[in-house]
C-alpha cells in the first residue's frame, strides 16, 4: 500500500506539467494561425468536408509530385488552398509565374474598337499587346492557381477589366501549353481561381467547372475548346481567324472527327445547326420560312432548328417544316408587360440545344446570300460588331450548354441591358467576344453620302432587313421608300433579292407569305401619303401587280385548333425550362445504302410527305456510298441526315442485290423518337398519313397471307430491340432472302393496317384494264422500273412485256406532279444518266419492233432530261 501512495504522489507534478504544455500549445495555435482574409477556407474544419470536386485533384496526383504554377499571387499564403485541393506540401513544387502586367492606360475600348480595316486596304488591323509568360519557363505544370482581379465588379454590369482578361489568358495559355501534346494525347492540367468574382465565363466554361466552393473555382478544361480560345485575338480589334494559325495546326479537323465511337449511328459527334426563334406573334413566320430556304439554297449541309412558342399556330408550324421545336417562354425581367421586348429573352433558349456542339443563331428577318457554313469553326461568342464594344446578336456563333443557359437565366435578373432587350443583356454577359466580318451580318441601312442608290454589297454573306420587311410590302418595290423616315432602310436590290428567294421556294410555302387585310391597308395608306407628298424617289408611281393584293390571308386561322387533346399529348408534364415539348417525338424514316440509284426517289418521297402537310420530322439514314453532293440535295429536300455503317445480310451472296439490305434495321437506333414510320425510298405519299403514328410496333399492310410488307411499317426505336435483331439475323432464315422475310420471322405477331397504306403498283388486267390507281390510296410503291428511270412522257414499264403488270399512266403522272412541284434546285437530282437513257431507248426500240399493242412506244419523247445527262458518281467534294 505504501509504495502505491508514493507513486501517485510523484505523478501529480507530471500531470500538471502536461496540462500547462497543452494550454501553451493551444494559445500558440490561436496566435499563429493563417490570416483568414487571405484565403477562404470555408468547409475545412474537417477532412471529411472536402468536396468530391477537390478530392478529384488529390486522387488525380495521388502519391505523385505535383508542379503548381501561381499566377497573380503575391505574398499570399497558399497552404490553405493546397489543403483544400488535397495536395501535400512535401510533394508539391511551387513556381511563381512572372509576366509584365498590361498597361493601366489601356481600356476595354482599345481592344473593342468601333471600326477596323476588315478588308485590309491599308494594313492588317492590330490589337494592343497583352504579354504572356514564355512557354519554356513554365513546363510540366499540373495545376495553375490564379487570383482573379475583382476590384472593378459592378452588380448590374458585365466586367470589362483588361488586367482580369490578362490573368485569365495567362492561365488559359499555361493550361494549353502544358496539357496539349497532340490532338489525341492530352495531359490533365487543372485551373484554380481564387477570388470573390468568377473567372471569365467566356474563356473557362461552366461545363468544365469541377467544383465551386466559397472563393475557389476549380476547372478541368476541355483542351480542344480552350486551345481555340487562346488562338483568338485579344478582342474585336482583329477579325477572328478561320483556322488556328500557329503552325497550321489540325485542331479544326480534330474538333469534328476525333473520338467517334464504334457502331454509333451518328458519326457527327460535333453536330452543328442554324437556329432561329419565333415567339409572341406570327408576324415573322414568313421571314423564318424565307431564311430556311435561303440557307438551303446556299447548299448548306447543316440542320435547321426553329424554336417556337404557343403563339405560333400548328398551321404555321406545318409551313416551318424544316424544324418544329417548341419551348416555354422566359420573360424579360426588365421589360414592361405588353411591351415589344417583353419576351425577347426567349432567344436564350438556343443554349438549350445541347444535341449540337455549335449553333449559328440567325434572326428571322435575315436572308443568307451565300454559304456561311465555314463560320461554324469559330468559338462562342463570335459575331459581327454593332458599334463600339457591342456585338450584334442577330447572327452569332454559340456553344449550347445547360449550365450556361442556367447562368444566363440567373444573370438576366441582375445585369442591365443598354437597349432593354436581349442584345444589350448578352453584351453584358459576354463582354469578351470574337469579331466576325461585318458582311456576315450586313444591316439593311444606308448612308446616302456613301451609297446613293442603296445597293447591297456583292460580297455580303447575309442581309438583315431593318425597317419594314419585304413580305410586309408589295412585291413590286420596297415600301420603306414610301415613308420619309424609313428611307435609310430602303433598297431596291435588297428587296429584289428577297423576292428571288420567295420565287424559288416551293409553291405550297408561298401562301405563308401572304398579305393580310391590315397589311394591305397599311401599305396603301403609306403609298397614298408618298403620292400626296410627291416624294422625289418616285416609287409611289410604280404600278402594283403583286397578286397577293387580291388574296388575303389570316395568320390566326388554324384548321386543327379544335383538337385540344393533340396539344395536350405533346405539352403536358413538361419540366420547367425544358426545351423539347414533344416527349413523344415521331418521324418518317428511310434508308439509302450501297448505291445512289434511289437518291431521286428519296427526294420525291420527302417532298410528297411535306406536300401532304405532315408535321413530323424526316430522317434519312445514309451510308458512305451516298456522296456529299447527294446529301446536300437530300438535306434541301427536307431530310435530316444520319450517316450509318451498312449491315450485311448474313445469308446473301457477295455482290448480290440484297447483300446489304439488313441496313434497314438501323431505324431501331433512332431512339430520339418514340415512333417511326419507315417508308421505302421508291414510295410516294399521296395524302397525309400522320394519323397512323398512333399504332404500335409492328403495324403494316399485308403482303399475302401471314406476311406483312416492310415497305411501310410503324416501329418503336429501341437499342435493345436493335441488338436482339442483330443477334437473330444470324439465326432466323428469310423466306425471300431479304430483310422483309427476316422481319416477318422476328415479329410473327403484328398489326394489320389497310392495304391502301402501302398500295403496290402492280395490276391485274382482269380487274383493272387501264391500270388506274385507286383514289383513296395513301401511298404508292413503285414496283418495276422507277418513274425517274423512265422518260417523263410515259411509264417505260409498258416497253417491256414482262413488266406490263407494273405499268400505270396515272401512277406515273402522279409521281411527275410531285417532281414539278418541288423546288427547281432539287430537280437535277432526278436527271438521266447516259446509261439510263441508252437502256430506255433499247427497250423502246424493242417495243416498236414488236409493235406492242399498248402503243406507248409511239409517244413522242419531249423529256428535256434526254439532252442534259447527269453523273451520280461525280462529286466536287469527293
Descriptive report:
- With 878 residues, the protein is of the alpha/beta class.
- Helices cover 26% and strands 15% of the residues.
- It contains 20 helices and 28 strands.
- A 7-stranded mixed beta sheet has the order 11-10-9-12-15-14-16, with helices on both faces. Strands 21-20-19-22-25-24-26 form a 7-stranded mixed beta sheet, with helices on both faces. A 6-stranded mixed beta sheet has the order 2-1-3-6-8-7, with helices on both faces.
- Helix 9 (314-319) links the parallel strand 10 and strand 11 (325-326).
- Helix 5 (162-179) crosses helix 6 (223-230) and helix 15 runs parallel beside helix 16 (628-637).
- The protein is globular and about 100 Å long.
- The model is unreliable at 1-11, 25-51, 243-269, 322-333, 556-583 and 873-878 (pLDDT under 50).
- One of its GO terms (molecular function) is glycosyltransferase activity.
- Keywords: Glycosyltransferase, Manganese, Transferase.
- InterPro entries: Glyco_trans_8, GNT1/Glycosyltrans_8, Nucleotide-diphossugar_trans.
